[in-house]
Amino acid sequence: MISCPMPAPVLTPFMDIQVKRLLKRYFLTFTREDTCMEYFLRDVKTCDLVSLNLVLSHDRFSKGIYISKFYPQLFCQFQPRFLSAACFFLMVHHSAGVFGLADHCRISLETEEKVFADFYSRLIDFHFTISRHRPANRVCLNGFYPCLPIARKIMNDI
Q: 5-29: per-residue pLDDT in tens?
């Protein structure tokens, strides 16, 4: 039997560009308390806080990540298009590394149906799907973390 090696996963050109755009203007810091990590997005030039509603936790039961809060407030900034996606991408990859999670671990969250349609469904790297409908037009989402090669310097700078 002949085996063919699978190609190594790569960062999509789109996300590569958006992460670089984000990091030219902002930087992430975080605090960790046991299984919970809160991220803070700050302006590179002024160090002003742009957002603090960025909370992820390690779901030990599912061996995955639960997105508790993700409201980066980047829409209030100049030319914000796609920067929220890059922020989400960096946070998930960083927290997965800190928690020592395996490639393709589960990511879950609850959000509004419109937010799923307008944002999470477009994060193709994470393959989000609706797992459950909730009252008041809310949905529970499941996706997975794709372990992608991100420059260690970027992740170490957070």
A: 334 456 778 888 999 999 999 999 8
Within the chain, what is the greatest distance between any pair of CA atoms? 60
Nearest to 84 by CA among 92, 76, 75, 97: 75
| Prediction pTM value | 0.85
Residue that wins the pLDDT comparison between 150 and 123: 123
- CA-nearest of 118, 119, 68, 117 to 95 is 68
Under DSSP, the state recorded for 77 is S
Please give the domain boundaries of the chain with CATH numbers for all domains: 13-157 (3.40.630.30)
DSSP-derived secondary structure letter, 7: P
Sequence-separated (6 or more) residues with CB below 8 Å from residue 23 = 154, 157
Alpha helix locations (H) across 53-148?
Answer: 83-99, 113-118
119, amino acid identity: F
pLDDT digits (tens, 9 = 90+) for 71-108: 888 877 888 889 999 999 999 988 888 888 877 789 99
∠ CA(32), CA(89), CA(60), 5° rounding? 45
Q: Identify the H or E element spanning 107.
A: strand 106-112
CB atoms within 10 A of CB 135: 5
